[in-house]
């Protein structure tokens, strides 16, 4: 049997899987991240935080990390939740991107 | 795919393919040759047969969640039913574009199945033969016959689908059966 013929079938199966299982999930994740970032940007003056972080980074990496931890724990609880949410969803998004690539390689070999 | 996965029942493979489409490889490997042979027996053109097989696999994946294994309903026969329906629809389309000049090869019975799909052939040859005769009939008669005998639909459901009265349906079925008999004996 021609491998191109099989690849054509599997490609279509992969597309269906992508649209059914991955796209809705990833879209929801992106939407939530975008919404969280919007709130984050409203509440936090990121430029100032980065400026201070740069000053802290000048002394040592340890100081830089300490500054980030200090900034995180001094922030309002809502901001802390938003930061955790963004990090968690960002990780899930990366995991899903990896899954999409891995599945593509496994399916269409 | 390892040997262990190849021993899994088809419906389990299909279920796993919903989560990880690479499992679908197993079903394609198992059925593509037999499907292609069957489709080629109907449309006689390699490209058309490949289109039908491709469409069949896509439908199997798309509607696979509707398949429930019950006594007497095997995945194989369900998959073959999809293949035959797809072939039938494809053939009807071909006939329309080719101006009713193309006919099915009536010798579907003579399809030589390999030992592997001998059981499938016995399940499907009768249906294939019926399909072959049906495709030679006028569309309105062919459709009611197909819905009633091949898709096991009730009178009521057919009437709803076709938007016709039950007496009309009975008359069409009667005429369709007579024509079916005539075409079958001519062959």
UniProtKB/TrEMBL annotation, chain A:
Key words of the record: Membrane, Transmembrane, Transmembrane helix
Transmembrane segments: 21-41, 67-94
Protein name: ABC transmembrane type-1 domain-containing protein
Lineage: Bacteria, Candidatus Harrisoniibacteriota
From TrEMBL, chain B:
Keyword Transcription regulation annotated: yes
GO biological process: DNA-templated transcription initiation
Ranges in coiled-coil conformation: none
Residues of the RNA polymerase sigma factor 70 region 4 type domain: 129-178
Any one GO molecular function term: sigma factor activity
Keywords carried by this UniProt record: Sigma factor, Transcription, Transcription regulation
Positions of the RNA polymerase sigma-70 region domain: 27-95
The keyword Flavoprotein is assigned to this record: no
Top-level division of the source organism's lineage: Bacteria
Family the UniProt entry places it in: Belongs to the sigma-70 factor family. ECF subfamily.
Name of the protein in question: RNA polymerase sigma factor
Species the sequence originates in: Candidatus Harrisonbacteria bacterium RIFCSPLOWO2_02_FULL_41_13b
């Amino acid at each position: 049997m021609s491998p191109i013929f099989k690849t054509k079938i599997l490609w279509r199966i992969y597309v269906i899987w992508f649209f059914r299982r991955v796209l809705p999930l990833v879209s929801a994740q992106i939407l939530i991240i975008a919404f969280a970032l919007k709130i984050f940007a409203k509440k936090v003056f990121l430029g100032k935080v980065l400026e201070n972080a740069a000053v802290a980074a000048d002394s040592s990496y340890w100081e830089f990390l300490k500054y980030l931890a200090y900034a995180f724990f001094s922030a309002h609880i809502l901001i802390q939740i938003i930061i955790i949410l963004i990090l968690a969803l960002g990780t899930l998004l990366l995991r899903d991107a990896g899954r999409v690539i891995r599945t593509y390689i496994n399916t269409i070999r | 795919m390892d040997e262990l996965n190849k021993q899994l029942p088809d419906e389990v493979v299909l279920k796993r393919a919903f989560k990880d489409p690479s499992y679908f490889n197993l079903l394609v490997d198992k059925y593509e040759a037999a499907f292609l042979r069957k489709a080629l027996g109907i449309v006689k053109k390699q490209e058309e047969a490949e289109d039908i097989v491709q469409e069949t696999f896509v439908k199997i994946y798309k509607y696979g969640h509707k398949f429930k294994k019950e006594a007497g309903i095997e995945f194989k026969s369900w998959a073959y039913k999809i293949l035959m329906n797809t072939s039938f629809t494809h053939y009807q389309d071909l006939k329309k574009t080719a101006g009713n000049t193309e006919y099915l090869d009536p010798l579907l019975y003579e399809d030589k199945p390999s030992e592997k799909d001998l059981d499938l052939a016995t399940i499907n040859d009768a249906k294939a033969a019926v399909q072959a005769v049906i495709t030679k009939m006028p569309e309105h008669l062919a459709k009611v016959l197909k819905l009633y005998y091949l898709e096991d639909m009730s009178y009521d459901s057919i009437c709803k689908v076709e938007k016709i009265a039950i007496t009309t349906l009975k008359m069409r079925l009667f005429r369709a059966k007579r024509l079916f008999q005539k075409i079958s004996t001519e062959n």
